[in-house]
Design brief:
The complex is a heterodimer. By secondary structure, chain A is an alpha/beta fold. Chain A contains 8 helices and 16 strands. Chain B is of the alpha/beta class. Chain B is globular, with a radius of gyration of 23 Å.
């Protein structure tokens, strides 16, 4: 059992949870992920490591309560425990030696982009964080991100905070203004990563993206997380989760991620009906 | 006087139509009367050819003699001396190509049903264990610590052999349930998971510690195990990395590796409503491959409610590597065999879900290196209407240990290189099972685990 030592809400949909898992905390690095399971009946859910504290033996994850399984985890309170917490999995990011980097986060992707920016900032790199949200209510980690970046450029789809527009608009402005990045790191919804990669390809800037495919074991065993990179099949869990954005087949990733949408919708519906029934009985 | 009946005493089986809709065990096992009747067919040969056919050297005529006398617990004790998982082996071993292939009774008529008798003894023991005096192992500890990586057949058998000799054994398992392929791969209707759990609980009673959720190489490396005071390490990480066909459309939704499909069903229990893991509800399923894993996947797909399930195999039926019994059971349950059929493309609908599979019709040519006649395209193509494809064309060893263990030699297939089948290139690191041989059988892995335990014992004694 893995105790939840801290849990807080970052916005209406998003929770941050810190879990006591000393063995995982001892090894975790930016870019890696964990797999967790709430109870005996639950799915195995992969979540990227958002932060870790080797001394306290804790690992922090940030998740959006969108489906039944993430809602189930969202129900757990501080002091309660997760049944399983496995990791660290995947290959760590290669961040050493980078001097000037654009770290791009879209929505929940900021949770994963943040530790990368933090690591780079601590290593003395110049970090421009370009982050995008649908609106001001959904913004997470603003202060944290500001603290680890040289410039924080905030974009919202509706202009309710920062500039109105997409992260690609801000990145394009930077590139047009002649900013020379060693690397662009883009983490967010697949469609955002796709358009960032298309843009940076025009400017010849190396771009790393982080995949979030469906997976079960996280150790290379199921092949459910396969993605096509440079025309070859790669397993996101062992070969990734980070890949060269100019090589990834994003359209395939988007299609594969929709494989269980009907089942997920039904499961979430059933779960919410049960919750309401329980509430009425009380 | 031996029972000279020519054929094996039949074992009751669930009705094919009924069972193809549920996950209950197919083979029901012998009653006491049936077991005694079958045991009496054994001639108790002096030179015991059957024992030479067993990878773990079960003393077969001895245990069968005890069954014939009605001393079932005594029979179980004889088996247990050399086989750590009798309830498992009695169900999934290919006895027809091992012990039973050497049986004298098989020269004229059918061999003694050794596998069924082994299973009977193990099941009898489990059913009566609570009434029997508790086995107290009370083995004196020798203060030597051994790490076993992987809780599949090779790891469990190595752990038990070492625990019996007084070693302090810790088994590290990556999944949340111990058992390796016995829990994620082999389906409930062939090997009930309660049985695997009971065998592992027995191991824990012997003092073996089993740690779950430990992806070794990532969370702890082999070098770190030695730093933590382990005296030797056994690597039994199996061959878990799925191979794909490499054909267009293979990444469409509804296309699974057999590993993924079976893990969703067997480990994550997607077939039970109270479990959350989803599985795609297919109408027409093609399983590509001709081995036991393909049969398991096809029979699971049928049980999940598919109207049509096909085995698609590029050679003929006599070239199929699956056990005859598995092929027979699959056919009984209505699985369609599309032989000499080789997939060349999967076509998806506009949402990216598989809808058709185009295949080459093959003809058999000259025998290849494996001695099997190699299939060649005839030029004709057929198109199968399918909404799910399960790829069961083999697996290779997982790379995590070799990626994180400097100095551990592996071959080009990723298998750990050993001088004698169990001793790796790294001092103190031993290996066995599919991680060394590539995908093989449960019992061969168990044999390797036992031999590795002998090698580890010798290594520690001489240190």
């Amino acid at each position: 059992m893995f105790k939840i030592v801290k849990k807080e809400s970052l916005n209406a949909q998003t929770d941050r949870m810190t879990v006591l898992a000393p063995l995982v905390a001892a090894k975790a690095l930016p870019g890696q992920f964990v797999i967790l399971r709430a109870d005996e009946y639950a799915e195995r859910i992969p979540l990227t490591v958002a932060d870790y504290d080797r001394e306290a033996g804790t690992v922090t994850v940030i998740f959006q309560k969108v489906g039944m399984s993430t809602q189930k985890i969202g129900e757990l309170k501080e002091g309660e425990s997760l049944l399983d917490f496995v990791g660290p999995l995947g290959t760590a990011s290669h961040l050493d030696g980078l001097r000037r980097v654009a770290v791009i986060g879209g929505g929940l992707g900021c949770a994963i982009a943040y530790p990368q920016a933090k690591y780079l900032h601590a290593a003395g790199a110049q970090v421009d964080m370009i982050v995008g949200f649908r609106n001001a209510d959904l913004i997470i980690l603003e202060e944290e991100m500001r603290a680890v970046s040289t410039n924080l450029i905030m974009m919202t789809d509706d202009g309710s905070k920062g500039e109105r527009g997409f992260v690609t608009d801000a990145l394009k402005a930077q590139l047009e203004a002649g900013v020379e990045y060693d690397e662009v790191i883009a983490i967010g919804p697949p469609v955002m990563m796709k358009f960032v990669s298309l843009l940076t390809k025009q400017y010849g800037v190396k771009t790393i993206v982080s995949m979030n495919p469906i997976m079960i074991d996280g150790t290379g065993m199921c092949g459910g997380c396969r993605v096509t990179v440079g025309g070859k099949i790669k397993f996101a869990c062992v070969d990734g989760p980070e890949f060269d954005g100019h090589e990834v087949d994003f359209d395939e990733l988007i299609r594969r991620n929709s494989a269980y949408v009907p089942q997920e919708r039904e499961a979430a519906h059933r779960y919410n009906c049960n919750l309401m029934k329980q509430a009425e009985e009380k | 006087m031996a029972n000279m009946q020519m054929n094996k005493t039949p074992m009751p089986e669930a009705d094919p139509i009924e069972r193809s809709r549920c996950f209950e065990e197919v083979a029901k096992g012998y009653t006491e009367e049936q077991a005694i009747n079958e045991a009496k067919r054994c001639l108790n040969c002096k030179n015991r050819p059957c024992v030479s056919g067993c990878p773990v050297g079960v003393r077969i005529p001895e245990f069968i003699a005890k069954v014939a006398e009605g001393d079932f617990e005594g029979a179980y004790a004889v088996i247990k001396q050399t086989n750590s998982l009798p309830a498992v082996c009695g169900r999934v071993c290919p006895q027809e190509s091992q012990c039973e292939s050497k049986c004298v009774r098989g020269v004229k008529g059918e061999s003694v049903a050794i596998g069924r008798l082994e299973r009977f003894c193990a099941d009898w023991h489990m059913a009566h264990a609570k009434d029997l005096p508790q086995t107290s192992y009370g083995i004196p500890k020798n203060d030597k610590k051994i790490a076993v990586i992987g809780s599949g057949p090779s790891g469990l058998s190595c752990a038990e052999s070492l625990a019996r000799r007084g070693y302090e054994v810790t088994v590290f398992e990556a999944f949340h349930t111990a058992g390796g392929v016995l829990v994620y791969g082999i389906p409930q209707f062939r090997l009930p998971k309660e049985i695997v759990k009971a065998e592992i609980d027995e191991l824990k009673k012997m003092g073996v510690e089993v740690l779950l959720d430990m992806v070794m190489g990532r969370v702890i490396t082999i070098d770190e195990l030695f730093e933590q005071g382990y005296d030797a390490v056994f690597v039994g990480t199996g061959a878990g990395l799925p191979r794909f066909l490499g054909i267009p459309g293979e990444n469409s939704c509804g296309v699974y590796s057999a590993n993924e499909f079976l893990t969703r069903v067997n480990l994550m229990k997607a077939y039970k409503e109270e479990y959350d893991t989803p599985i795609y509800q297919a109408r027409s399923v093609a399983v590509v491959g001709g081995g036991n894993v393909a049969m398991d996947a096809a029979r699971c797909a049928k049980r999940l409610g598919a109207e049509q399930v096909m085995i698609v195999y590029r050679r003929g039926e006599s070239e199929m590597p699956a056990r005859l019994e598995e092929i027979h059971h699959a056919k009984e349950e209505g699985i369609i065999f599309k032989l000499l059929t080789n997939p060349c493309e999967i076509i998806a609908d506009e949402r990216g879900f598989a809808k058709q599979m185009v295949c080459d019709v093959m003809v058999l040519g000259e025998p290849d290196a494996s001695g099997r006649r190699s299939p060649e395209p005839s030029g004709e193509k057929i198109t199968l209407d399918v909404d799910s494809v399960i790829v069961a064309v083999g697996t290779s060893p997982n790379p995590l240990i070799r990626m994180t263990t400097p100095g551990l030699e592996t071959d080009r297939r990723g298998c750990i290189v050993t001088e004698d089948g169990v001793t790796s290139s790294r001092p103190g690191v031993f290996a066995g099972g599919d991680a060394v041989t590539g995908a093989a059988t449960v019992i061969l892995a168990m044999g390797a685990g036992k031999r590795a335990a002998d090698a580890i014992d010798a290594y520690i004694q001489n240190k």
